[in-house]
Amino acid sequence: MIVSLEIAVELIKSGEVVAIPTETVYGLAADALNIHAVEKTFRLKKRPADNPLIVHICSMDQLNSLSSEISDDAIRLATAYWPGPLTMVFKKRSHIPDMVTAGLNTVAIRLPDHPLTQSLIKQTSPLTAPSANKSGRPSPTKADHVLDDFDGSVPVLDGGPCRIGLESTVIDLTGNIPVILRPGSITADMIFKDTGISVADHAVTVDNLKKSPGTRFSHYKPIASVSWLNHVPTAFDKRSYYIFHSDQFSIQAENVTCYNGDYERLAKNLYDHFRRADHLGYNHILIESMSGIMDSQFTSALTDRISKAIG
Ligand code: TXA
Ligand code: MG
Fold it and tell me: Which of 71, 72, 119, 294 is at 20 to 30 A from 285, Cα to Cα?
């Protein structure tokens, strides 16, 4: 059911779970310091216990309460991008429950850019919030997506459709150099231009897999199979749902969507396409190949999420 901010505050305070809007995707929020509430999120999502959660905060004071090792780089990144779609991994303080961090000595933290959620955190506490989908499913970018995944049983604070539509960039700040563990709409190039900080780009090394357990799991999958489309089809199959993104295509058909190079809009709509294709009973989702397209802020995150939906 949809709930008001006042009810959401009461529910969080009493150890319940509430789905919350952010600028990236909806999250399934619980009081980060209440292990019973956090446990409920794992149970509801059917999330493996070894996949740690992001803690969502509303101020730098809260950051200090969760980590004692906040580097100058972290301060510069927070100043440049918070509130916003950047998650940073810090050494954690010992009072953060092990369940939140899946036993790691680090904690992922972000300050989301949505007024309702900021207000909720201000009135309650730091909140754990994994994406509010059943584990393995596409992340929800609308309140309706959350209601669908949980058959209406999870209370949802409806903040409208998410502005960005892909999950935050995750950067590990606990090693020698900052490393992107999950690409998002804030890229290494952007960070260098905005702050002068060099960040190693998303590299799937054994080390990173250990550091970002989430990257190991099956993710973002609709029921329809997802594939890259490497050449233009001569005919369109009725059971397939097509997405073209380059400016070479402007085809109009019920099962074809063209983005004409607007990657920001594709990012915003990608998971909605996945869910719509399932809802309409398509068997396949075919997406124009992204190899060779390097000029967009969103290409790396889109390629990552689509590849995982395929894999
Ligand atoms: O945009 C987002 O980040 C959304 C919204 C709701 O904030 N949240 C989200 O959460 O995507 P989730 O749980 O679906 O993904 C969290 C990612 C996972 O890949 C997880 O492994 C990683 O962050 N992560 C969490 N804690 C970590 C830690 N201590 N070290 C490394 N990676 C961590
Ligand atoms: Mg997720």
Answer: 294
The ligand 1 site (C-beta within 6 Å) comprises 22, 24-25, 27, 51-54, 87, 89, 101, 104, 106-108, 112, 129-131, 167-168, 170, 181-182, 211-215
Over the stretch 204-254, which tens digit does the pLDDT of each residue have? 554 555 555 555 556 778 999 999 999 888 889 999 999 999 988 888 889
Kindly tell me the number of DSSP H helices and DSSP E strands found in the chain. Answer: 11, 14
Contacts (Cβ under 8 Å, ≥6 apart) of 165: 24, 25, 141, 267, 268, 269, 270, 271, 272
Ligand nearest to the CA of 180: 1
User: Could you check whether the bond before residue 83 is cis, i.e. omega within 30 degrees of 0?
Assistant: yes
Strands 169-172, 86-91: pairing is parallel
C-alpha of residue 158 to centroid of ligand 2, in Å: 19
| 88/105 Cα distance (integer angstroms) | 14
**CA-to-CA distance for 47 and 277, rounded, in angstroms?**
24
Phi, psi of 110 (to 5 degrees): -145, 155
Q: Which tens digit of pLDDT belongs to each residue from 72-117?
A: 999 999 999 999 999 999 999 999 999 999 999 999 999 999 999 9
> In this structure, which ligand is nearest to the CA of 215?
1
Largest CA distance in the chain: 60
Per DSSP, the residues of 206-257 read HHHHHH-GGGGS--S--SSEEEEE-S--SS--TTEEEEE-STT----BTTEE
Q: Which of 212, 217, 270 to mutate to test the pocket of ligand 1 (most atoms within 8 A of CB)?
A: 212
